[in-house]
């Protein structure tokens, strides 16, 4: 996370997050760094589906067709939350931390996206471990995905 923080600072970019499974853990981890207010604009925790649709305005048809744990949903979360938060880029994540199958998707399945004003990328990962281990690994992966996005 420290590398991401430094990179964002160097580029003069602000970031926001739209988090479901991680429940704000990405933003909280970034906020623990001194000077975080220079880069962290805010976060929206969309743990329940209604928050995704009612607040962030994720299309209900997308959720019905692909599920909340999908790249399609994560893409809309990142794109729409970026505008709501007024940040340069936004990272999103929706997944199944377990222990049970959700929407036919296994525990540990994570879908996310990174978006700026011009482009967006999505990712899907399969993680293993306890609920909280998966959530922590997911935050690390979110930081990696944002760094990768910024280096292209």
From TrEMBL:
Keyword Nucleotide-binding: no
Superkingdom: Bacteria
GO molecular function, one term: hydrolase activity
All copies of domain CinA C-terminal, residue ranges: 2-149
Coiled-coil annotated residue ranges, if any: none
Keyword Methyltransferase belongs to the record: no
Keyword line: Hydrolase
Pfam families documented for this protein: CinA (PF02464)
NCBIfam families: PncC_domain
Name of the molecule in the record: Nicotinamide-nucleotide amidohydrolase family protein
């Amino acid at each position: 996370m420290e590398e991401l923080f430094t990179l964002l600072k160097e580029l003069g970019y602000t970031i926001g997050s739209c988090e479901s499974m991680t429940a704000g853990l990405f933003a909280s981890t970034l906020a623990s760094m001194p000077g975080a207010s220079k880069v962290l604009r805010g976060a929206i925790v969309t743990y329940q589906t209604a928050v995704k649709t009612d607040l962030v305005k994720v299309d209900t048809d997308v959720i019905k067709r692909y599920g909340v744990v999908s790249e399609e949903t994560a893409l809309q979360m990142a794109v729409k939350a970026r505008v709501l938060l007024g940040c340069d880029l936004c990272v999103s994540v929706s997944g199944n931390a377990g222990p049970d199958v959700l929407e036919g998707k296994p525990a540990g399945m994570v879908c996310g996206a990174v978006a700026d004003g011009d482009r967006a990328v999505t990712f899907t990962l399969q993680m293993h471990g306890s609920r909280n281990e998966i959530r922590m690994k997911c935050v690390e992966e979110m930081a990696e995905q944002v760094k990768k996005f910024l280096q292209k």
